[in-house]
Amino acid sequence: MPILVFLHGLLGTKQDWQYIIEELKKNLPHFSSQSYLCLDLPFHGEQTNYHIEDFEQSAQYLSRQITAKIADKPYILVGYSLGGRLALNYALQSKYPQSKLVALILEGANLGVENEQQRLERWQNDLAWAKRFSQETMSKVLNDWYQQPVFAHLSARERKQLISQRRHQSGQNIAKMLIATSLAKQPSFHQKVRSFSLPIYYFCGEKDEKFKQMAQENQLNLFLIERAGHNAHLENPIAFANKIVEIINRT
């Protein structure tokens, strides 16, 4: 069985995957601590002192981590949101060898913007958020962050829980990561995903209309997670893990 390498999203840590790991242990024979690798992204969790400035450096980071920790074993990259975008860049754009990569599982990952006007607007938006993260209290910024349309499905309780979990992150570090990995700086992968030689499985909460539409328009192999929105692995870990089991059993 390929090793599952999990990449969290902006504001997260490798601990975000704990419920998925628990479900996989229940449902996959011989699934153990040797069967997966959860990484903290630069500026996050245990990697707060690891700084990057762009997508190329993020790919270098992933290459080093994967080489050091799983060597030459086959693996599947599982990335949520920002983690999915970094996985895409690593697999489709970077110069680092991926001979042992066998598939991508992307959850709510943006394939990129396709015109310069959208790119400029996104850059200005990310700059504004980065300024807020670097200057205001985390609780205040996160309260507004989770009011964005992509999180509209969250209940007040779920929103409060996320803010409580994320407010201990460094606002300065989140600002730096936003600038380094802005969607405005990401290559567009809309064409490349259609011709990529390895399987791409796209996970999306059924309530996440934006990314569901994007996956359908780009003819991705779409796996809908019931009773979930943008953060499907957190909102319905059982269904999410079951989809991974389906894929593993095919591999």
Task: Describe the structure using short key phrases.
251 residues; alpha/beta; Rossmann fold; 6-stranded parallel sheet; 11 helices; 13% strand; globular; SHCHC_synthase_MenH
CATH architecture level-2 label: 3-Layer(aba) Sandwich
Kindly report the average pLDDT value: 96
Low-confidence stretches: none
* Alpha-beta content class: alpha/beta
Q: Report the principal-axis shape.
A: globular
Model description:
The protein is 47% helix and 13% strand. The protein has 251 residues and is of the alpha/beta class. The protein has one domain (3-114, 186-250): Alpha/Beta hydrolase fold, catalytic domain (Rossmann fold). Strands 2-1-3-4-5-6 form a 6-stranded parallel β-sheet, with helices on both faces. It is globular, with a radius of gyration of 17 Å. The mean pLDDT is 96. Belongs to the AB hydrolase superfamily. MenH family. Keywords: Lyase, Menaquinone biosynthesis. This is Putative 2-succinyl-6-hydroxy-2,4-cyclohexadiene-1-carboxylate synthase. Its EC number is 4.2.99.20.
Explain the layout of strands and helices.
Layout lengths: L2 E5 L10 H10 L8 E4 L15 H16 L4 E6 L1 H11 L8 E7 L8 H20 L2 H8 L10 H11 L4 H10 L11 H4 L4 E6 L3 H9 L3 E5 L6 H4 L1 H14 L1
Parallel strand pairs: 1-2, 1-3, 3-4, 4-5, 5-6
Helix pairs in contact: 1-11, 2-3, 4-7, 5-6
Quick synopsis:
The protein has 251 residues and is an alpha/beta fold. 47% of the residues lie in helices and 13% in strands. It has eleven helices and six strands.
